[in-house]
Amino acid sequence: MLNVLVDGSVKVAFYHIPASEVGDKLSSIMQTLKANRKTVLIINGDRDTPHKFISAVLNTAAKAGYNQVRINAEVRAKDK
Fold first, then answer.
1. Count: domains in the chain
2. 62 within domain boundaries
C-alpha cells in the first residue's frame, strides 16, 4: 500500500519518499519489500492530494512493470 501525501511525498511501509525522489526510489523500495510484478499495488490519496502526484506514482509503477494497480482516493466535493 502506497500513501500519496498532499505534498507529493509517498509513504510505503516504514519508508518516506520525498516527492522529488519518488521516480528514482519507489521501484527499489518495492523490491526491498519483496514486491514482485504480480503484487497488487494500492495507491491511497486523500481529497487534498493533487491528481498530478497520484499520476506520478501511477507512472512510476507502470515503468517499473507493475500492472495491477488499484486507486483508493477520496474525491473532493464540488463547491456550490
1. 1
2. yes
C-alpha span between 50 and 72 (Å, rounded) = 14
CB under 8 Å to 70, separation ≥6 — which residues?
40, 41, 42, 43
Q: How many residues does the chain have?
A: 80
Q: What is the mean pLDDT of each run of 10 residues along the chain (80 residues)?
A: 92 91 84 77 88 90 86 73
The set of cell numbers assigned to 59 is 507512472
pLDDT for residue 79: 67
Question: What does the pLDDT read at residue 68?
Answer: 87
What does the alpha-carbon distance between residue 60 and residue 14 come to, in Å, rounded to a whole number?
19
Q: Which residues of 50-78 are buried (b: 16+ CB within 10 A; e: fewer)?
A: eeebbebbbebbeebebeeeeeeeeeeee
